[in-house]
Queue: 2 jobs
Job 1
Amino acid sequence: MDLGIAGRSALVCASSKGLGRACAESLAREGAAVTMVARGREVLEDAAEAIRRATAARVTTVVADITTAAGRATVLEACGAPDILVTNAGGPKPGDFREWEREDWIAALDANMLAPIALMKATIDAMIARRFGRIVNITSAAVKAPIDILGLSNGARSGLTGFVAGLARGVVAHNVTINNLLPGPFETDRLRDTARQWSRQTGKSEDTVLAERRAANPAGRFGTPAEFGDACVYLCSAQAGFITGQNLLLDGGNYPGTF
Ligand code: NAP
């Protein structure tokens, strides 16, 4: 199936590793010109080069912290007005809410709520003018089923989800869609970091924690970043113009509800 986005420009935030990188690669494979962003230059350049070699797409890199206004300004200057925006940033630290101060909450809100909103604000009017825009926010399964040690994530991402629910209905008539992808457990550095924290809290080894999580998932495994990237690219496709305001859970069936 031709997804109809060859030649479109895509900004993929926090994309040198993990889920962001997978989204960048899937978009590049469909012929989009991709701008990739991360704070660490070396890993970002390596990832971009690997994607260029695999897809022959035009891939631009920007070293920036997407959670700051200055970082976003640098990114937007480099990529102009993208047709496709994938928002993403590192997840907040796990822990016990009794340990978190106001600064921890502000950092989580900046990364996982306010940065995506600022990026949408900066890019959406040009999408409306062109009558094509696809926005995908990488959030978390924790929005539907909270994870106790990820309270900062549960809170900040729920704020973004509420905001998007309202905005999405206001722009879809212009062929601009906004959807959220909710990852369950995907095999990335972030998942391993969370397992390390859980291992410290429970006294179980990291391998045991990972094995138990795999076994507890109905799929009996973690998701692969490539599966995530390919779901993202469909939501960014020309064909997906009637899908908006949705929260799509990718979790191997882990969420137990009927809806
Ligand atoms: P990951 O493998 O740790 O990759 C994170 C990527 O984001 C890296 O490229 C990192 O590069 C970049 N990044 C982090 N902070 C950034 C910032 N402030 N500005 C620019 N780039 C930044 O993480 P992941 O597993 O792909 O997770 C992506 C998102 O999905 C996170 O918010 C995570 O909490 C959420 N999530 C993941 C899972 C999972 O199972 N993997 C489940 C639920 C939710 P630099 O460090 O060089 O900047």
Job 2
Amino acid sequence: MMNDLFDSVDGEGWSEPVGDGVVVLRRFASSASPALMAAVADIAAQAPFRHMVTPGGHSMSAAMTCAGSLGWVTDARGYRYQSCDPQTGRAWPAMPPKFFALAQQAAERAGFPGFEPDACLVNRYRPGAKMGLHQDKDERDFSQPIVSVSLGLPIVFQFGGLRRSDRPQRVILEHGDVVVWGGVARLNYHGVLTLKAGHHPLTDEFRYNLTFRKAG
Ligand code: SIN
Ligand code: FE2
């Protein structure tokens, strides 16, 4: 299912398997990245980045917005997907075609053809922000993978097992890297460690992450 290490590819980059069902497609999104960031700016102009609050009452350190027919939200009522942005009352911005195409191509490269994401969660990390270990399990169909695109500053990604207590592997994710997980790894715990300060020519002091899901 997985490509070999340093597999030569028709697009950019190379594949690094992390474990069963999870692969890092190094630099897969590099050449698309300026266009992706322009699309992020368009999305944020319609649905501003905000710090959502967990059901436990904690403000998330990553700022978030969404694109697609469904967007992921958290508030005092819990985690869920919904078609409207709770902050504006409007539908989330449409999924940019270049987002959809990149996510579908990355999924296919990782062995998951026919991926049709309907939700893109956009995370923006500034130095000090992080994302604790969690499972992506608010989606309806776990046969569909998760495609996660890293832009800007590097960060340490943690990828664990099905139990929170399973010791995670650590992988540095850099600009243009895409992680795809699915199949036996679909519900594995994952997160990112605290972002360190730096400067990136495309994203200044930030790291952005685009997470694509088939949610509905
Ligand atoms: C997430 O799992 O929601 C985000 C992971 C990342 O920022 O790379
Ligand atoms: Fe996640």
